[in-house]
Amino acid sequence: MTAMTGLKPKHFLWQVEGRIAKVRLDRPERKNPLTFESYAELRDTFRDLVYADDIDAVVFLPNGGNFCSGGDVHDIIGPLVKMDMKQLLAFTRMTGDLVKAMLNCGKPIIAAVDGVALGAGAIITMASDIRIATSEAKTAFLFTRVGLAGCDMGACAILPRIIGQGRAAELLYTGRTMSAAEGERWGFYNRIVEASALEADALDMAARIVAGPTFAHGITKTQLNQEWSMGLDQAIEAEAQAQAICMQTADFERAYKAFVAKEKPVFEGN
Questions:
Q1: What DSSP element (H or E) covers 39?
Q2: Which of 7, 123, 180, 206 lies 20 to 30 angstroms, CA to CA, from 164?
Q3: Same domain, yes or no, for 228 and 196?
Q4: Which pLDDT tens digit goes with each residue over 191-206?
């Protein structure tokens, strides 16, 4: 296992407090677009989180009133039109690897969205476990608006699971903006909060999660992601095995002893 509290990334902001990692993209003057370098560094960071024993949850936060405007037009889109197919496939696989790393990092991820979450910014939001927004949040899977297909970074697989096939099809075909109110009504956003309360609300949710049985949370995240591709019998059997593993943890015993003593359990993640 490794420690990541002291991580000093070059292409985004990283701060750890109370076993919660706070991530902010750091180009607020341009609404926080992604570059080739920031994509890769985020991917590598989430891959490493699997082995981090000092972080139990991650919160993606806005910076300067915006979440993320997607891939930088000048730093990414411009160079892409000059690449050959092999280079383009390497890029699209790399961006998809960020989503894979988020899904497989073993830590719950909360996206706190204000302002724009466009393109890859919408994808990062989608790939998070819990999504909280302000009323000013504008979310768009705008790939068709730049002449591409809506099937980017897992959108055609993940988005229908969250909001339904028909609604996902509408957003992915048109590339139109989904308002915060629509997002909450459709189940994309868990709730809408005031902009002044967004960070505190997201961090409070993260703190509640971190105070729980964090080893078991990692199991829950794995099952939430894997069971979509299972039949019902397979899913029930997988959960039986997963729960048996959790019953071997000290946290399970702590919860039992606390219940008997009429006390609140204090979980330690083991």
A1: helix 36-49
A2: 206
A3: no
A4: 999 999 999 999 999 9
Residue 266 falls inside a structural domain: no
Give the DSSP per-residue string, 85-145: HHHHHHHHHHHHHHHHHHHTSSS-EEEEE-SEEETHHHHHHHHSSEEEEETT-EEE-GGGG
CB distance 145 to 70 below 8 Å: no
Domain that holds residue 136: 12-210
Q: Is residue 1 part of a domain?
A: no
What is the mean pLDDT, run by run of 10 residues, along the chain of 270 residues?
A: 91 96 97 95 97 97 97 88 95 97 98 98 98 98 95 97 98 98 98 98 98 97 95 97 97 96 95
